[in-house]
Protein backbone atom coordinates (compact mmCIF):
# COMPACT_ATOMS: atom_id res chain seq x y z
CA UNK A 1 0.00 0.00 0.00
CA UNK A 2 1.56 3.34 -1.04
CA UNK A 3 2.36 5.85 1.70
CA UNK A 4 0.33 9.06 1.76
CA UNK A 5 3.11 11.64 1.94
CA UNK A 6 0.59 14.28 3.01
CA UNK A 7 -0.58 12.37 6.10
CA UNK A 8 0.41 13.57 9.56
CA UNK A 9 2.24 10.31 10.23
CA UNK A 10 4.37 10.56 7.08
CA UNK A 11 5.18 14.22 7.67
CA UNK A 12 6.08 13.50 11.32
CA UNK A 13 8.54 10.87 10.18
CA UNK A 14 10.07 13.33 7.72
CA UNK A 15 10.32 16.13 10.29
CA UNK A 16 12.09 13.88 12.79
CA UNK A 17 14.78 13.21 10.17
CA UNK A 18 15.47 16.90 9.68
CA UNK A 19 18.42 18.50 11.54
CA UNK A 20 17.75 20.69 14.56
CA UNK A 21 17.24 24.38 13.78
CA UNK A 22 20.06 26.09 15.69
CA UNK A 23 19.77 29.43 17.46
CA UNK A 24 22.54 30.75 19.71
CA UNK A 25 20.80 31.89 22.88
CA UNK A 26 18.40 28.95 23.08
CA UNK A 27 20.95 26.26 22.25
CA UNK A 28 23.55 27.74 24.62
CA UNK A 29 21.48 28.31 27.73
CA UNK A 30 18.46 26.04 27.28
CA UNK A 31 18.39 22.25 27.68
CA UNK A 32 15.77 20.68 25.41
CA UNK A 33 13.79 18.19 27.54
CA UNK A 34 11.61 16.91 24.69
CA UNK A 35 7.84 16.33 24.81
CA UNK A 36 5.81 15.35 27.89
CA UNK A 37 2.30 13.93 28.33
CA UNK A 38 1.12 16.40 30.98
CA UNK A 39 -0.89 19.47 30.04
CA UNK A 40 1.39 21.64 32.26
CA UNK A 41 5.10 21.73 32.91
CA UNK A 42 5.64 20.70 36.56
CA UNK A 43 8.96 21.04 38.36
CA UNK A 44 10.38 21.20 41.88
CA UNK A 45 11.88 24.51 42.98
CA UNK A 46 14.09 25.36 45.92
CA UNK A 47 16.88 27.74 46.80
CA UNK A 48 20.43 26.53 47.37
CA UNK A 49 21.62 25.25 50.73
CA UNK A 50 24.95 26.07 52.40
CA UNK A 51 24.27 24.68 55.84
CA UNK A 52 27.40 23.18 57.43
CA UNK A 53 27.47 19.91 59.31
CA UNK A 54 27.66 20.42 63.13
CA UNK A 55 30.78 19.72 65.20
CA UNK A 56 29.98 17.49 68.18
CA UNK A 57 31.83 16.16 71.22
CA UNK A 58 33.01 12.56 70.86
CA UNK A 59 30.54 10.07 72.28
CA UNK A 60 27.46 12.34 72.29
CA UNK A 61 26.02 11.10 69.02
CA UNK A 62 24.83 13.39 66.28
CA UNK A 63 22.96 16.69 65.97
CA UNK A 64 19.83 16.91 63.85
CA UNK A 65 20.06 19.02 60.71
CA UNK A 66 17.01 20.56 59.11
CA UNK A 67 15.94 19.22 55.75
CA UNK A 68 15.46 21.90 53.17
CA UNK A 69 11.95 22.16 51.79
CA UNK A 70 10.91 22.80 48.22
CA UNK A 71 7.96 24.01 46.20
CA UNK A 72 6.29 22.24 43.30
CA UNK A 73 5.50 24.74 40.58
CA UNK A 74 3.66 24.45 37.30
CA UNK A 75 3.22 26.54 34.18
CA UNK A 76 1.11 26.03 31.08
CA UNK A 77 2.39 25.49 27.56
CA UNK A 78 2.23 28.04 24.78
CA UNK A 79 0.70 26.95 21.47
CA UNK A 80 2.64 28.00 18.38
CA UNK A 81 0.93 27.20 15.09
CA UNK A 82 2.22 28.87 11.91
CA UNK A 83 0.39 28.05 8.67
CA UNK A 84 1.14 28.34 4.96
CA UNK A 85 -1.55 28.56 2.28
CA UNK A 86 -1.31 26.86 -1.12
CA UNK A 87 -3.93 27.86 -3.71
CA UNK A 88 -4.33 27.47 -7.45
CA UNK A 89 -2.16 30.47 -8.49
CA UNK A 90 0.72 29.04 -6.42
CA UNK A 91 0.50 25.76 -8.30
CA UNK A 92 0.15 27.22 -11.79
CA UNK A 93 3.05 29.66 -11.81
CA UNK A 94 6.75 28.88 -11.72
CA UNK A 95 8.12 28.62 -8.19
CA UNK A 96 11.17 30.50 -6.92
CA UNK A 97 14.34 28.89 -8.32
CA UNK A 98 12.42 26.61 -10.67
CA UNK A 99 13.80 26.14 -14.19
CA UNK A 100 12.01 28.13 -16.87
CA UNK A 101 12.19 25.27 -19.38
CA UNK A 102 11.05 21.81 -18.31
CA UNK A 103 8.93 23.22 -15.48
CA UNK A 104 7.29 20.94 -12.92
CA UNK A 105 3.69 19.84 -12.95
CA UNK A 106 1.32 21.37 -10.37
CA UNK A 107 1.42 18.11 -8.36
CA UNK A 108 5.23 18.10 -8.29
CA UNK A 109 5.27 21.77 -7.39
CA UNK A 110 2.89 21.18 -4.48
CA UNK A 111 5.17 18.50 -3.00
CA UNK A 112 8.16 20.84 -3.23
CA UNK A 113 6.18 23.69 -1.65
CA UNK A 114 5.15 21.42 1.22
CA UNK A 115 8.77 20.58 2.01
CA UNK A 116 9.88 24.20 1.81
CA UNK A 117 6.95 25.37 3.95
CA UNK A 118 7.72 22.78 6.66
CA UNK A 119 11.35 23.90 6.79
CA UNK A 120 10.34 27.58 6.95
CA UNK A 121 7.78 26.95 9.69
CA UNK A 122 10.29 24.95 11.76
CA UNK A 123 12.69 27.89 11.54
CA UNK A 124 9.93 30.31 12.58
CA UNK A 125 9.07 28.12 15.59
CA UNK A 126 12.74 28.01 16.60
CA UNK A 127 12.89 31.80 16.39
CA UNK A 128 9.95 31.91 18.82
CA UNK A 129 11.78 29.54 21.19
CA UNK A 130 14.80 31.85 20.97
CA UNK A 131 12.55 34.80 21.84
CA UNK A 132 11.12 32.89 24.82
CA UNK A 133 14.62 32.04 26.09
CA UNK A 134 15.54 35.71 25.67
CA UNK A 135 12.58 36.79 27.80
CA UNK A 136 13.34 34.37 30.63
CA UNK A 137 17.05 35.25 30.65
CA UNK A 138 16.60 39.03 30.59
CA UNK A 139 13.53 39.40 32.82
CA UNK A 140 13.00 36.12 34.68
CA UNK A 141 9.49 36.06 33.21
CA UNK A 142 7.73 34.40 30.30
CA UNK A 143 5.07 36.80 29.07
CA UNK A 144 3.18 35.99 25.88
CA UNK A 145 0.05 37.19 24.12
CA UNK A 146 -2.09 35.09 21.85
CA UNK A 147 -3.68 35.36 18.42
CA UNK A 148 -7.32 34.46 17.82
CA UNK A 149 -9.27 34.16 14.57
CA UNK A 150 -9.83 37.91 14.80
CA UNK A 151 -6.12 38.69 15.23
CA UNK A 152 -4.01 39.52 18.24
CA UNK A 153 -5.78 39.29 21.59
CA UNK A 154 -4.83 42.59 23.22
CA UNK A 155 -6.72 41.86 26.44
CA UNK A 156 -5.07 38.59 27.46
CA UNK A 157 -1.42 38.11 28.33
CA UNK A 158 -0.06 34.89 29.82
CA UNK A 159 2.67 35.52 32.38
CA UNK A 160 4.91 33.11 34.30
CA UNK A 161 7.03 35.02 36.83
CA UNK A 162 10.00 33.02 38.13
CA UNK A 163 11.08 35.62 40.70
CA UNK A 164 14.40 36.61 39.14
CA UNK A 165 16.41 39.19 41.14
CA UNK A 166 20.00 38.76 39.91
CA UNK A 167 20.55 42.16 38.29
CA UNK A 168 23.83 44.07 38.48
CA UNK A 169 24.88 47.64 37.68
CA UNK A 170 28.51 48.72 38.16
CA UNK A 171 29.45 51.88 40.05
CA UNK A 172 31.23 53.19 36.95
CA UNK A 173 29.95 52.50 33.41
CA UNK A 174 32.34 50.45 31.31
CA UNK A 175 32.45 53.22 28.72
CA UNK A 176 34.29 55.33 31.32
CA UNK A 177 38.07 54.95 31.18
CA UNK A 178 38.22 54.61 34.98
CA UNK A 179 35.85 51.63 35.06
CA UNK A 180 37.10 48.61 37.02
CA UNK A 181 35.88 45.99 34.56
CA UNK A 182 37.79 43.03 35.93
CA UNK A 183 36.56 43.80 39.44
CA UNK A 184 32.98 44.12 38.17
CA UNK A 185 33.25 40.75 36.46
CA UNK A 186 34.37 39.17 39.72
CA UNK A 187 31.38 40.67 41.53
CA UNK A 188 29.11 39.26 38.82
CA UNK A 189 30.81 35.89 39.14
CA UNK A 190 30.33 35.95 42.92
CA UNK A 191 26.61 36.78 42.52
CA UNK A 192 26.17 33.69 40.36
CA UNK A 193 28.19 31.61 42.83
CA UNK A 194 26.08 32.90 45.74
CA UNK A 195 23.02 31.76 43.80
CA UNK A 196 24.62 28.29 43.50
CA UNK A 197 25.11 28.72 39.77
CA UNK A 198 28.14 28.26 37.54
CA UNK A 199 29.59 30.79 35.10
CA UNK A 200 30.66 29.04 31.91
CA UNK A 201 30.40 32.10 29.72
CA UNK A 202 29.61 35.77 29.48
CA UNK A 203 27.54 36.89 26.49
CA UNK A 204 27.44 40.64 25.83
CA UNK A 205 25.95 43.14 23.42
CA UNK A 206 28.44 44.43 20.81
CA UNK A 207 28.67 47.89 22.40
CA UNK A 208 29.61 46.26 25.72
CA UNK A 209 32.35 44.27 24.00
CA UNK A 210 33.65 47.42 22.30
CA UNK A 211 33.74 49.35 25.58
CA UNK A 212 35.51 46.47 27.32
CA UNK A 213 38.18 46.10 24.65
CA UNK A 214 38.72 49.89 24.50
CA UNK A 215 39.52 50.02 28.22
CA UNK A 216 43.32 50.08 28.44
CA UNK A 217 43.32 49.09 32.11
CA UNK A 218 41.24 46.00 31.43
CA UNK A 219 43.29 44.89 28.43
CA UNK A 220 46.34 44.57 30.71
CA UNK A 221 44.43 41.97 32.75
CA UNK A 222 42.90 40.25 29.71
CA UNK A 223 43.78 36.58 29.15
CA UNK A 224 46.17 36.60 26.21
CA UNK A 225 45.58 33.15 24.71
CA UNK A 226 44.05 34.69 21.59
CA UNK A 227 46.41 37.65 21.28
CA UNK A 228 49.00 37.50 18.51
CA UNK A 229 51.75 40.17 18.43
CA UNK A 230 49.56 42.72 20.20
CA UNK A 231 46.50 42.01 18.05
CA UNK A 232 43.36 40.58 19.62
CA UNK A 233 42.06 37.91 17.24
CA UNK A 234 38.34 37.54 17.83
CA UNK A 235 36.65 34.68 16.02
CA UNK A 236 33.29 34.99 14.25
CA UNK A 237 31.04 31.97 14.86
CA UNK A 238 28.01 32.95 12.73
CA UNK A 239 24.55 34.31 13.66
CA UNK A 240 26.15 37.45 15.06
CA UNK A 241 28.29 35.50 17.57
CA UNK A 242 31.94 36.47 18.02
CA UNK A 243 34.29 34.72 20.46
CA UNK A 244 36.39 37.35 22.23
CA UNK A 245 38.51 35.28 24.60
CA UNK A 246 38.74 34.43 28.29
CA UNK A 247 38.62 36.81 31.24
CA UNK A 248 41.01 36.56 34.18
CA UNK A 249 38.83 33.84 35.76
CA UNK A 250 39.02 31.72 32.61
CA UNK A 251 35.38 32.36 31.62
CA UNK A 252 34.61 32.41 27.89
CA UNK A 253 33.38 35.76 26.59
CA UNK A 254 31.22 36.30 23.51
CA UNK A 255 29.83 39.29 21.67
CA UNK A 256 26.34 38.65 20.30
CA UNK A 257 24.89 40.92 17.60
CA UNK A 258 21.85 38.75 16.75
CA UNK A 259 18.55 40.45 15.91
CA UNK A 260 14.91 39.42 15.66
CA UNK A 261 11.74 40.84 14.15
CA UNK A 262 9.35 41.56 17.01
CA UNK A 263 5.59 41.00 16.78
CA UNK A 264 5.08 44.69 16.03
CA UNK A 265 7.27 44.35 12.92
CA UNK A 266 10.30 46.21 14.26
CA UNK A 267 13.79 44.71 14.15
CA UNK A 268 15.42 44.63 17.59
CA UNK A 269 18.69 43.30 19.03
CA UNK A 270 18.37 40.06 20.97
CA UNK A 271 20.66 41.53 23.64
CA UNK A 272 19.71 45.16 24.38
CA UNK A 273 22.42 47.80 24.25
CA UNK A 274 24.64 47.83 27.34
CA UNK A 275 23.59 44.34 28.49
CA UNK A 276 25.48 41.19 29.31
CA UNK A 277 24.42 37.79 30.64
CA UNK A 278 26.72 35.67 32.81
CA UNK A 279 25.79 32.07 33.55
CA UNK A 280 26.13 28.41 32.70
CA UNK A 281 25.17 26.34 29.70
CA UNK A 282 21.83 24.57 30.00
CA UNK A 283 20.59 26.56 33.01
CA UNK A 284 17.09 26.77 31.48
CA UNK A 285 15.01 23.87 30.28
CA UNK A 286 12.42 23.71 27.51
CA UNK A 287 9.58 21.20 27.71
CA UNK A 288 6.99 20.59 25.01
CA UNK A 289 3.39 19.76 25.83
CA UNK A 290 1.14 17.40 23.86
CA UNK A 291 -0.39 18.60 20.60
CA UNK A 292 -4.08 17.79 20.07
CA UNK A 293 -5.72 18.40 16.69
CA UNK A 294 -8.66 17.32 14.52
CA UNK A 295 -7.47 15.79 11.26
CA UNK A 296 -10.71 15.05 9.41
CA UNK A 297 -14.19 16.47 8.95
CA UNK A 298 -17.69 15.04 9.06
CA UNK A 299 -18.99 12.17 11.16
CA UNK A 300 -15.54 10.54 11.39
CA UNK A 301 -13.89 13.63 12.89
CA UNK A 302 -12.03 13.05 16.14
CA UNK A 303 -9.28 14.57 18.22
CA UNK A 304 -5.79 13.06 18.00
CA UNK A 305 -3.05 13.78 20.50
CA UNK A 306 0.68 13.56 19.75
CA UNK A 307 3.52 13.60 22.28
CA UNK A 308 5.85 15.33 19.86
CA UNK A 309 7.74 18.63 19.74
CA UNK A 310 6.32 19.62 16.33
CA UNK A 311 3.21 18.19 14.69
CA UNK A 312 2.13 18.89 11.10
CA UNK A 313 -1.43 19.12 9.76
CA UNK A 314 -2.66 19.45 6.19
CA UNK A 315 -6.27 20.44 5.57
CA UNK A 316 -8.25 21.87 2.71
CA UNK A 317 -11.01 24.37 2.10
CA UNK A 318 -13.46 23.44 -0.65
CA UNK A 319 -15.00 26.92 -0.68
CA UNK A 320 -11.60 28.60 -0.91
CA UNK A 321 -10.21 25.97 -3.29
CA UNK A 322 -7.01 25.98 -1.26
CA UNK A 323 -4.92 23.88 1.11
CA UNK A 324 -3.22 24.93 4.34
CA UNK A 325 -0.19 23.33 5.93
CA UNK A 326 0.18 23.90 9.67
CA UNK A 327 2.96 23.05 12.10
CA UNK A 328 2.08 23.10 15.81
CA UNK A 329 4.43 23.15 18.79
CA UNK A 330 3.64 23.69 22.50
CA UNK A 331 6.83 24.74 24.31
CA UNK A 332 7.48 26.45 27.61
CA UNK A 333 10.75 27.44 29.25
CA UNK A 334 11.53 27.22 32.96
CA UNK A 335 14.79 27.72 34.90
CA UNK A 336 16.57 24.93 36.76
CA UNK A 337 17.66 27.57 39.29
CA UNK A 338 16.43 31.15 38.95
CA UNK A 339 19.47 32.49 40.82
CA UNK A 340 21.97 30.77 38.51
CA UNK A 341 22.68 33.72 36.23
CA UNK A 342 23.15 37.48 36.32
CA UNK A 343 21.95 40.19 33.93
CA UNK A 344 24.17 43.26 34.05
CA UNK A 345 23.59 46.69 32.52
CA UNK A 346 27.14 48.03 32.33
CA UNK A 347 26.88 51.10 30.05
Radius of gyration, taken over Cα atoms and rounded to an integer in Å = 25 Å
Structural class: alpha+beta
Percentage of residues in strands: 25-35%
The percent of residues in helical segments reads 10-25%
Low-confidence stretches: none
* Spatial order of the strands forming the largest sheet: 7-23-16-8-13-12-11
Instruction: Give the termini distance in whole angstroms.
Output: 65 Å
Order of helices and strands: HHEEEEHHEEEHEHHEEEEEEEEEEEEEEE
Description:
It is a single chain. With 347 residues, the chain is an alpha+beta fold. Helices cover 24% and strands 33% of the residues. It has seven helices and 23 strands. Strands 7-23-16-8-13-12-11 form a seven-stranded mixed β-sheet. Strands 1-17-22 form a three-stranded mixed β-sheet. The protein has a three-stranded antiparallel β-sheet with strand order 4-21-20. The chain is globular, with a radius of gyration of 25 Å. The model has no long low-confidence stretch (mean pLDDT 82).
